[in-house]
Specification:
The structure is a single chain. The chain is α+β, with helices and mostly antiparallel strands. It has three domains: 172 residues, Jelly Rolls, CATH 2.60.120; 45 residues; 62 residues, Homeodomain-like (Arc Repressor Mutant, subunit A), CATH 1.10.10. The chain has twelve helices and nine strands. It has a four-stranded antiparallel β-sheet, with helices on one face. It has a three-stranded antiparallel β-sheet with strand order 6-5-8, with no helix packed on it. The protein has a two-stranded parallel sheet with strand order 1-3. A hairpin with a 2-residue loop joins strand 5 and strand 6. The radius of gyration is 24 Å and the shape is elongated. The termini are far apart.
Length: 296
């Protein structure tokens, strides 16, 4: 929100190389940034997590990696809404981490063992939970270790952190590799088109697709237009109107019902899009293309 106060939290090295805290939502929590890297694991309830302007619905088991200087905040959908924070600065950890300047470059180093030339290429403002792995128990074990502070607890925390970061890196980069070279827009866009054609008209947004391929929305939009020759919105509109044309000719559904079937809630928007794509209204299209025998 423009003009809203944004707090900045700094790191206190006297609290340890890795700091674990348990947090519960309070109304005074405001948008803030960090002078450190933060791992967040939701442990109870559900809510909304806003990261650099991106809004993500979240629940128990969801994981987020917040990089240096990134603005974020929580809003509960149920209470209590609770999470565990794992706070660290790479340069204070083992030698492997110490040369990395951001969470993105750290993940890249863990997975590929070399330096990432452009940390902005890695999208972190998404839910990093893996559907087939629940690491919530690791965060809970780390919190207990930190609170008990028994002999060797910092080494144990560092090993847990390495496991969690490796799982996150594997989630991001393995899925990227499985889709082929991400620099080849055709590989991505061909998959996107297949997904759009299998989905209900208008049910998948450009942002959802961009996030699923770990791309910024602007990069995704550029790749899509280069490959398809039209914008994502234009392509989806054509899919929806093609579906409307099919329903007009093969069913006896009313125009309003067809509008709903193609994902349009506003009648004016539907008629405007239909006329732009076909040059006529839905009624005119049905009358022009319907077989006279069908009318009889």
């Amino acid at each position: 929100m423009t003009g809203a106060k944004i707090s900045r939290y700094e790191y206190d090295p006297e609290m340890g190389r890795i700091i674990m805290t348990s947090s519960v939502y309070r109304p005074f929590l405001i948008e803030h940034t960090h002078g450190f890297v933060e791992l967040v694991c939701i442990t109870r309830g559900c809510g909304i997590h806003t990261i650099d302007g991106h809004t993500v619905r979240t629940r128990r088991g969801d994981i987020f990696l917040i990089d240096y200087g990134v603005k974020h905040n929580f809003h509960p959908l149920s209470e209590p809404f609770e999470w565990i924070n794992c706070i660290f600065r790479p340069e204070l950890l083992c030698d492997v981490f110490s040369t990395q300047e951001s969470a993105a470059s750290l993940l890249y180093y863990i997975f590929y063992h070399n330096k990432l030339s452009d940390p902005n290429a890695v999208t972190l403002n998404i839910n990093l939970r893996s559907d087939n792995e629940d690491v919530s128990s690791m965060f809970e074990d780390m919190l207990r270790e930190y609170n008990d502070k028994k002999h060797g607890y910092e080494d144990i925390l560092e090993h847990y952190l390495m496991i969690i970061l490796t799982k996150i890196a594997r989630r991001i980069f393995s899925e990227t590799e499985n889709r082929g070279d991400m620099s080849k827009s055709g590989d991505i866009i061909g998959d996107v088109i297949n997904r759009l054609e299998r989905s209900e008209p208008g049910s998948v947004s450009a942002k959802q697709l961009a996030d699923s391929y770990f791309l910024s929305q602007s990069s995704f939009s550029t790749k899509f237009k280069e490959k398809v020759g039209m914008s994502f919105l234009e392509y989806v509109t054509r899919l929806r109107i093609n579906r409307a044309c099919e329903l007009l000719l093969t069913t006896e559904l009313q125009i309003g019902e067809i509008q709903s079937c193609t994902g349009y809630q506003d009648a004016k928007a539907f008629y405007r899009a239909f006329r732009r794509c076909t040059g006529m209204t839905p009624t005119e299209y049905r009358e022009k293309h319907c077989d006279p025998e069908d009318k009889d």
